[in-house]
Design brief:
Elements (H helix, E strand, L loop, with lengths): L5 H24 L12 H4 L1 H14 L2 H4 L2 E5 L7 E5 L33 E3 L2 E3 L3
Antiparallel strand pairs: 1-2, 3-4
């Protein structure tokens, strides 16, 4: 078994975080994709589809190197599900769950910040989502 090179791994994670993850999260914050509980016209507005497209586009860049597959599952009247299967070296299954919808805007944002306006200050990213 190959030995883990911690410095190389750390550099890889830092690069992916800075070059790919943060810019994708910045774009995600701009999408006012409120939860269907707070936006009854969510399907017509298309914000959920924009959020799904954004994350599917990001994930597809990494599927081949992982031997992974991706599908978007849709049921009428329900929010879509992004399903990614990443094969591993063991028979156990790990499931991760997240959601792309957001809570309402709320009040109390600092000057220059808002729910759909991404702001990076130092190592923190502000916005809804």
């Amino acid at each position: 078994m190959a030995e883990l090179n911690q410095a190389k791994l750390s550099g890889f994670v830092d690069r992916i975080w800075t070059d790919e993850v943060v810019p994708t999260l910045v774009e995600y914050i701009k999408i006012p994709n409120k939860s269907p509980s707070f936006e009854p016209n969510w399907q017509r507005l298309g914000h959920m589809d924009r959020a799904v497209d954004l994350f599917v586009s990001w994930a597809q860049k990494h599927l081949e190197e992982l031997g992974a597959t991706l599908s978007v599952e849709r049921l009428e009247g329900r929010t879509p599900l992004i399903y990614i299967d990443v094969p591993g070296a063991i028979d156990d299954v790990v499931m991760m769950y997240g959601h792309l919808d957001k809570q309402p805007e709320m009040t109390g944002w600092s000057e220059g910040k808002g729910p759909w306006v991404p702001v990076i200050e130092g190592d923190k990213l502000y916005g809804r989502g």
